[in-house]
Amino acid sequence: MDKELSSKPSVNGKERRNGRKGRAAATGMSVERFFTTPGVDPADELAWEYRSASITGEDGKAVFEQKNIEVPKSWSMLATNVVASKYFRGTPGTPERESSVRKLVARVVDTLTDWGTKGGYFATDTDRETFHAELTHLLLRQKASFNSPVWFNVGVEAQPQCSACFINSVEDNMDSILTLARTEGMLFKYGSGTGSNLSTIRGSKELLAGGGTASGPVSFMKGFDAFAGVIKSGGKTRRAAKMVILNAEHPDVLEFIRCKSNEEKKAWALIEAGYDPSFNGEAYSSVFFQNSNNSVRVTDEFMKAVVNDGPWTTKAVRDGRPMDTYKAREVFREIAEAAHLCGDPGLQFDTTVNSWHTCSGTARINASNPCSEYMFLDDSACNLASLNLMHFRTIDGDFDVTAFRHAVDILIMAQEIIVGFSRYPTERIEKNSHDYRPLGLGFANLGALLMATGLPYDSAAGRNYAGAITSLMCGQAYATSARIAEKLGAFAGYAKNAEPMLGVIRKHRKAAYNIAPDGVSEELYAAQKAAWDEALARGEEHGFRNSQVTVLAPTGTIGFMMDCDTTGIEPDIALIKYKKLVGGGMLKIVNQTVPLALEKLGYPQTQAQDIISYLDKQETIEGAPHLKPEHLAVFDCAFKPARGQRSIGWMGHIQMMEACQPFLSGAISKTVNMPSNATVEDIEKAYLEAWKRGLKAIAVYRDGCKRTQPLNTSKDTVKDTKAKVAEPEAQPAVKPEPRAVRRRLPDERRSITHKFSIGGHEGYLTVGMYEDGKPGELFIVMAKEGSVVSGLMDSFATSVSLALQYGVPLKVLVDKLSHTRFEPSGFTGNPAIPIAKSITDYIFRWLELKFLPKEDETEDAVLAAPTVEATPVAKPAALPAEVVTPALPVSGLSATWLNQADAPPCHTCGAIMVRSGACYKCGNCGATSGCS
């Protein structure tokens, strides 16, 4: 059983150096100066100011506040709030509380530089000073950032935990299973994420040594899930970050595939029974498997059986004997159906993952971290860092290859220093971290960079450009790792993995030479090939200091810290953004990447201004004056704008992953968002294409799938429901009561359908009419079918339909139900009803406009006057014009609402979060739901 890590650090693994040429002399590294000037503090080159940081929740109350914070003037208010609330250490309100970004960065850089000195990383004092200055510059200028645990812990604890991502093993015995539960719990407590492959646990149809049958991995998953739900993450209220994997050949694979979707259906039933449907509410807290991402590990053998419609046989864990045989396509279909219903499971392509494995001489890769970007040996950890690509644009809009390469050198050196001085949760993870030294350098702002360069995200040229940058980053990182190995020795496990690792480096290099030059500058194209030439040559001579160097993480919180418009590999969400002001409030602005793109595309300033003005007013760039049709694709975003039609299709996301994957040690954290009307067949096609295109993993998320019913549950189902409740119960024969006569609609009748949107909640009203044009039935179909809102609206529509058919005047219903106030409410986009106080308010004001004569209409202008009724209904006065500001932006952020309205609320401030890779991030306070 693993023990807690001792406090004694391993100084850069010197005890375990055994590179190809044996133990190297620790002569230290020479560090070149590029961004900074000798004798000048990089912090003094920035303009600074004092601000007050404040984060308010959905109820308007402050959830965080700190005054007099020293911040670079160039940093946004959001970056200020995120850093102050997440990364400043010390008890708020005490002298020990940090209050300066300058001092925060110094705390981290001073510590890393001190560690580097102790570890023999610097050849001279000048090299040490240069490293300190260059790293400070990169961090203060928002050109790079480490993962959150570095900011949390470095310089605060003597031996800090610095890694965000962990992979844990489990064996087929109770001792190991319970140890895994404990290890996961401790990781969740400190805010890190973990993943495990449970295929080593025997299936539920296999026998135990003492007789009887085993529980199976899915049963143990319930226990793991319960621990994760209770402990939460980082001691906060958010869900733990966790990945659970099962191999497709495991005898319980079908139970695993169905487990989360079956629980989803239970949650629906609880919601329909009236339980709280929110992300942390009673409905979802009462069902299992809500604290993890689930993935099925499939081999090429399985995928070929799917393509060829062949059989698939599961195997016993203990002895490998054949168990059950299915049609491979049936298993694949089950995976797609479950993902269509609840978003899980995703797929990890085992053969592809292990064909790019640098340390296959040690063991195979079985699992990943929660977001699927870190894939390596069991019982290992990875610290992450990301580069902000937009800060490597030149004045002319080109990519600064030289600056980027130097930044990679500094970051890889800093991350390598971190490895040996970090704390790890178990002895096995500590040993593997020191023996194999995996790193996870990545980037953010790719989507913004492509747009600013005038390249569509979904284009061959855009993909070539992205692939070349990723290739340069990884090639340069391996070359730097080999230079460090020359001075300090290769990683301890290199000797038995030299052949497979060099083989992988050659595969990377071959892919670099196969990038098409379209869209890539000559300098960038040549540099990325040269980087791999150097990496291979130096690696063959000296080995490598690190077994892995790159991943593409979601960059949630640190993306806010760097003021990135886009995170990780993602495209931009929308062309309209909302910016927090220093003095409070929000400012609606056109995405600042748009002017850069128009300039790069050659539009004169006057035409560019016309286009921007149109975008600002219409909230879509489609139809803008002067804009050439061939340039429209440059401005396509992840989500369709409220008033436009264009967006990036799901295949465009997969193709971008395909372009970058050959140049990553690990994988890519990305969920392929699909529209709500995507079919099971679409998901099957997405999974199949991902395998064919060489991705290591894929997860899909059909917008609106959470807390919903299948999309084929629509009006026909509503009609069936009405039929069951339409007839009143028989009355007693004695003392008959007066009965209203039901006026049924003809079998064929005219109808009108109206689409609406209220505060990001979309739906359709369909009114069936009598021959005289009067309304006789109402159908309400919400985009969030199956949610409590949709269920109530369905029942409500049935009640209204019956009321109309039994003769209740529409005016009575309008008078009673217009202007009722509850959530969701907000702007509607309908000029006749610009703001709705609730869905009910909108429905009856629309019915009033459509079906009541003018003399019967309720005038909004007199709402302030008292209304005398038998049952008084509170009707607020009309809002003054200056108060009419959207609680949520009409687009931009609302584009996110329209497409991800079922995302969870932020655990810190309560705002609705958005997807970031396979996790979620909060645009209000910067919190994340994954392993940040």
Automatic annotation (TrEMBL):
Cofactor(s) listed in the protein's UniProt record: adenosylcob(III)alamin
Root EC class: oxidoreductase
Catalytic activity: a 2'-deoxyribonucleoside 5'-diphosphate + [thioredoxin]-disulfide + H2O = a ribonucleoside 5'-diphosphate + [thioredoxin]-dithiol
Domain Ribonucleotide reductase large subunit C-terminal, chain residue ranges per copy: 163-701
Ranges where the record places region Disordered: 1-29, 725-746
Signal sequence bounds: none
Recorded GO MF terms: cobalamin binding; cobalt ion binding; nucleotide binding; ribonucleoside-diphosphate reductase activity, thioredoxin disulfide as acceptor
EC number(s) stated in the UniProt entry for this protein: 1.17.4.1
SUPFAM superfamilies: PFL-like glycyl radical enzymes (SSF51998)
InterPro entries named among the record's database cross-references: RdRp_reductase_class-2, RNR_2_N, RNR_lg_C, RNR_NrdJ/NrdZ, TSCPD_dom
Family in the record: Belongs to the ribonucleoside diphosphate reductase class-2 family.
Name of the protein in its database record: Vitamin B12-dependent ribonucleotide reductase
Organism: Pyxidicoccus fallax
Source taxonomy: Bacteria, Pseudomonadati, Myxococcota, Myxococcia, Myxococcales
